[in-house]
Design brief:
32% helix; 4-stranded mixed sheet; 10 helices; 438 residues; single chain
Length: 438
């Protein structure tokens, strides 16, 4: 059995029809036109009998159930074990709804079953069939495309804007692969930033990462794919002083996308050495403790308080639905879970490892994990193999704000406030066990 590393990729269009409701804001936005096509890119890898597929799609979020369905179909088509498959959403706010979320949108099952799943499976199959021997290089650069978006006003209130004092992950990383003849065959870009520069525009778009990916493909002559990092508290550094476009068009998509393109090309050009690849998949279960579920009486009291409000806005819709579900489960004597279970699957390329999170991770968590990690380049990816909610740090809990409210109130099962510490320790445990047993 050959120990030569092989890699292949395939990109498919997943653009929805015009009129499709776009997801990411409470405002209803049927798609009026296509600014640029949404895509799904699958990357298949193999070495010494170990096979895996890592996927990125230009959608806002994804559910565990959809990922499981795609994994099963990809395993059937390619033979790759379903537990060796990872699926990330780039988090554009100008694509279709993949999950239902009170006040934000309803899952578009016709799109999911008719376009997203079949095109993803087709891309994975084609990527698996196109694998060739390859070597790899890594380049990094500092990029100011993103900024901490938890702006603090003079009264201490947290707003969605730009916070120059907030924690910010400015590292952009490019992994480039060449075949054994020296031809570029694939580039993988990692950076942390919300896909919100289009704002409430009604055009379908990949947002700023689309321009970056296209520029890198033009520069390298090879397929390029974007993986979004710890974007939970990171937004595009738009010249309007916000992190959300407000023109109703794609002006800021072009502004931020071109800046990102310059940075990605610079990182790519900085790569001088291409070496043989040691490929690995790090797997294991992560357990995150939940807070106690409210009693039936507590849930009814909270629901009555919400019902007394004149109007429900944003997170209120989700908390209202959660309380109704809690009451129903109590009345049906249902069993409540005490932990969230995550089947972790990290992709390792030499000293670079992709660490997936089914959350919108705050950047400090990624920076801390990167500092403690035994791998040189530790790249956290958000909205991967599921999209639950924001995962903030304990220090940001005290500030409150939109993301904190989502974390605290908008789900049936609520994680402990120190989950940032727990999830870092759990991922480090899996990394160290892998290296110990290697």
């Amino acid at each position: 059995m050959s120990k030569q590393f092989k890699i292949g990729s395939s990109k498919k269009i997943i653009t929805p029809p015009l009129g499709t409701p776009l997801y990411g804001y409470t405002t209803k936005r049927p798609a009026s036109s296509v600014n640029d096509d949404l895509t799904v890119t699958a990357v298949a890898c193999e070495q010494d009998g170990l096979r895996g597929v890592i996927i990125s799609a230009d959608i806002c979020s994804v559910t565990e159930q959809i990922v499981d369905t795609m994994r099963e179909q990809i395993q059937k088509e390619t033979g790759v074990l379903k537990e060796n498959i990872s699926f990330s959403a780039t988090h554009t706010h100008s694509g279709p709804a993949i999950k239902s979320s009170g006040g934000w949108g309803v899952a578009n099952t016709e799109y999911i079953n008719g376009i997203l799943i079949p095109q993803t499976v087709a891309a994975a199959k084609e990527a698996s069939e196109s694998m060739v021997p390859a070597v790899m290089g890594v380049g990094t650069t500092q990029s100011l495309v993103g900024i901490n978006r938890r702006e603090i006003d003079e009264d201490g209130k947290v707003l969605l804007g730009q916070n120059p004092f907030g924690v910010c992950d400015t590292t952009m990383t490019v992994l480039a692969f060449k075949d054994l003849n020296g031809k570029n065959i694939l580039s993988m870009v990692h950076y942390s930033c919300h896909g919100t520069s289009a704002g409430r525009c009604t055009k379908i778009t990949r947002d700023w990462p689309g321009i970056m990916v296209d520029a890198l493909e033009l520069q390298s002559g090879a397929t390029s794919v974007f993986f979004n990092g710890s974007e939970g508290d990171m937004g595009p550094r738009i010249s309007n002083g916000s992190t959300t476009g407000e023109t109703g068009d794609v002006d800021y998509v072009n502004e931020i996308g071109n800046l990102a393109a310059i940075d990605a090309v610079r990182a790519f050009r900085s790569i001088k050495d291409f070496t043989e690849v040691d490929f690995g998949i790090i797997k294991g279960e992560i357990k995150l403790p939940y807070k106690p579920i409210p009693t039936l009486e507590q849930a009814k009291a909270k629901l009555a308080k919400l019902d007394a409000q004149e109007q429900l806005i944003e997170v209120d819709f989700r908390e209202h639905a959660v309380l109704q579900e809690t009451i129903k489960m109590h009345e049906e004597n249902a069993k409540f879970d005490d932990h969230m279970h995550i089947d972790q699957v990290m992709f390792k390329f030499n000293s670079t490892v992709f660490v997936p999170f089914p959350f919108e991770l705050f950047s400090e968590i990624a920076l801390r994990l990167r500092t403690y990690s035994p791998f040189q380049n530790t790249l956290c990816t958000c909205n991967t193999n599921g999209s639950h909610f924001y995962l903030p740090t304990q220090t940001e809990m005290a500030r409150g704000g939109y993301e904190i409210e989502i974390f605290l109130y908008a789900t049936l099962y609520k994680l402990q406030n120190n989950t940032d510490d727990t999830i870092i320790k759990e991922n480090l445990r899996l990394m160290r066990e892998y290296l110990k047993n290697k």
